[in-house]
Design a protein that fits this description.
alpha/beta, 4 helices, 23% strand
Length: 150
């Protein structure tokens, strides 16, 4: 868990230098996405071999366990929540899974994402849905204001 001083929002373009793999987590929602995820995950593993990767099977009948095992990924299977009626539950599941770890940088990517190289810099502000929103809306907190809590 992280505790942040929410009294002083910052909106800067500050960045931090590259971080270790273990400080980044990736979540990928899959739904009838086997061809895309077969292609995507090996690229992640080439670039970030030790990062935590979680595949979230959103209620389809496609088998992902073998791919998850071969690529050292977590796999969570659940009900189909990516609907207008239950989208809020999807977001809750996603955020719960991402925040289960100790990583400082959490990314949700699509199953057709391709990674070519490591990030050269990462944002120094907290951001739930993206740096652009955090900076433009002045809602991000500078990482120096966030401290791990027990």
């Amino acid at each position: 868990m992280v505790s942040c001083n929410r009294e002083t929002p910052h909106a800067t373009h500050d960045t931090v230098p590259p971080v270790e793999d273990g400080n980044i987590a990736w979540a990928i929602q899959v739904y009838n996405s086997r061809p895309q995820i077969d292609w995507c995950v090996p690229f992640i593993r080439r670039v970030y071999p030790r990062s935590r990767v979680v595949l979230i099977s959103d209620g389809d009948k496609t088998q992902y366990a073998d791919l998850a095992h071969q690529n050292n990924c977590g796999l969570v299977s659940g009900d189909h929540l990516m609907t207008l009626k239950t989208g809020h539950l999807y977001v809750q599941r996603l955020l719960t899974l991402l925040t289960d770890g100790t990583e400082s940088f959490l990314f949700r990517i699509d199953p057709d994402t391709r990674m070519w190289r490591r990030f050269s810099h990462l944002p120094a502000v907290t951001s739930l849905f993206g740096t652009l929103e955090a900076v433009s809306q002045k809602i991000g907190l500078h990482r120096s204001e966030c401290t791990p809590s027990g």
